[in-house]
């Protein structure tokens, strides 16, 4: 079982979440919601988690495919439900930017495997009703 500790450490909404190894993530409410810019909002952290989870998959898959990539950057954009509380992620779009001499078809297959099969964060969002789309840009 994973255990995370979350503590209010700044006025209003400034939190720190600490994992079992002592790694810390700072969180805050959005500026519109009264936050002070101390950290990312919890909902933004879900998109960050999607990028990290899928990024790990992509590295693993490209290595197994023996694709010599030199860089990997992901952009993740999302839209939340309008006028609902709670407002879940409704649509998320991921852009994978892969540098190196990577075959486009293999890069796209890696992204597909990640988003549709391996990434637990993607599956969590999907089960909550989120539509996830993606595209791959190979930059030689």
The computed structural class is alpha+beta
The CATH superfamily label of the largest domain reads K homology (KH) domain
What is the overall silhouette? Answer: globular
Mean pLDDT: 97
What percentage of amino acids are in beta strands? 25-35%
Query: Unreliable stretches, pLDDT < 50, 5 or more residues?
Result: none
Please indicate the count of domains. 2
**Rg, Cα atoms, Å:** 17 Å
Residue share in helices?
25-40%
- Total beta-strand segments: 6
Structure characterization notes:
The structure is a single chain. With 140 residues, this protein is an alpha+beta fold. It has 2 domains: 1-40; 42-139, GMP Synthetase, Chain A, domain 3, CATH 3.30.300. Helix content is 33%, strand content 34%. The protein has helices spanning 42-64, 104-118, 120-127, and strands spanning 5-10, 14-18, 24-27, 69-80, 89-100, 131-139. The strands form 2 sheets. A 3-stranded antiparallel beta sheet has the order 1-2-3, with no helix packed on it. Strands 4-5-6 form a 3-stranded mixed beta sheet, with helices on one face. β2 and β3 (24-27) form a beta hairpin. α1 (42-64) packs across α2 (104-118).
